[in-house]
Amino acid sequence: MKSYLKLTIAVIAVLAVIFTGANIILHYENKGDAGRPYRVEAERIAAKIESGEEYSLDDYRYIQNIEIQENGFGGGDSDYLVKEIGGKLYRFDYSYQADNNAAITSFNICFGVTAAFVLLLLLFLFIKIIRPFEKISAYPTELAKGNLTAPLKESRDKYFGKFLWGLDLLREKLENQKSAELALQKQNKTMVLSLSHDIKTPLGVIELYAKALEKDLYKDEKKKLEVARNINGKCEEIRGYVDGIVKASSEDFLNLEVNNDEFYLSALIEKIKSFYTDKLSLLKIDFTVDSFSDCILSGDLERSIEVLQNIIENAVKYGDGKEIAIAFSREDDCQLVHIRNSGCTLSENELPHIFDSFWRGSNVGSNSGSGLGLYICRNLMRKMNGDIFAEIQESDMVVTAVFSIA
């Protein structure tokens, strides 16, 4: 805001300097010889008289009459000037009305209109862009702090309406994710407390049986066998609780929403090309996309973009940085999109695990990651009635996304 005000003041100052300077120059020219063309004509005629050349007043616009002084100049109401030529005085009568005032007036009008347009433009930018942007500039910071409850006011402004809508959509998504995360934490704590309580009972029974056996309280062999069976039953009960924990931990913990619809393959590929053509060019990676026959696919366009982006990002991170290529093929009612990157260093026995959650291969090196990228891709593709698989062809990694044709 302050920078814009400084810019506005600077523009006004420059306009004022230009206006003042131009008027000074125009007024100076109006008073000087440049604004008196009759003097130029008088000089030209004087030069011809002095050289003895003939001249005609019809050829001149301002000089009306020339008179030689003999017994003094006669009277007259016309303007004149006197020049000495060859020892004689000549009177040059002229008719001239300075019209530079009209030029000054025209300049001032044009400059005034231009200055008004510039100032109105600055005012328009302030009202429509600078001030609205100033109001929302702190909003991303509030989102980063976790202040997600206050919605943005709706705006029909064509410059920021869509931007504000997107920010509010982001706020709602973050708020929903936060609520889901809190609910998951609560659920996990409840489950841990419940299981801890449930496990305590069979553990207590086992502990009592163990102490009884330690003190040899049971003399009858049948009773001892019954106690052993009870201990085994309680162990099975505890094992059931442990299996429940493992199952709950292995279930899908990501809330991946998919809005299945229909979209063109070309729309998907154009998005990918527009994002990665320049990026991979800067990384000196050869990026090629084969030709394809357009078709309508079934699924979520945004989620499909997310899947292909995830695959390409992995290709950038774990390939040799030489080539990434996208190819296409069809099988039955499915459209296959193959993403190939050169320089695969993953072993064959690791290949079946790359779609598991939190799994990272031996080729990760110093690259950071969570091991969830391809796991998310697989879940998204299956929710869109598709699939994803990977294979190693010679020294290249090929990941194929399978889409259903609508």
From TrEMBL:
It is found in: Cell membrane. It is an enzyme of class 2 (transferase). It comes from the Bacteria. It catalyses: ATP + protein L-histidine = ADP + protein N-phospho-L-histidine. InterPro entries: HATPase_C_sf, HATPase_dom, His_kinase_dom, HisK_dim/P_dom, HisK_dim/P_sf, HssS/ArlS-like, Sig_transdc_His_kin-like_C. Keywords: ATP-binding, Cell membrane, Kinase, Membrane, Nucleotide-binding, Phosphoprotein, Transferase, Transmembrane, Transmembrane helix, Two-component regulatory system. It is a multi-pass membrane protein. CDD domains: HATPase (cd00075), HisKA (cd00082). The chain crosses the membrane at residues 7-28, 102-127. GO terms for molecular function: ATP binding; phosphorelay sensor kinase activity. Its EC number is 2.7.13.3. It holds the Pfam family HATPase_c. SUPFAM superfamilies: ATPase domain of HSP90 chaperone/DNA topoisomerase II/histidine kinase, Homodimeric domain of signal transducing histidine kinase. One of its GO terms (cellular component) is plasma membrane. This is histidine kinase. It comes from Ruminococcus difficilis.
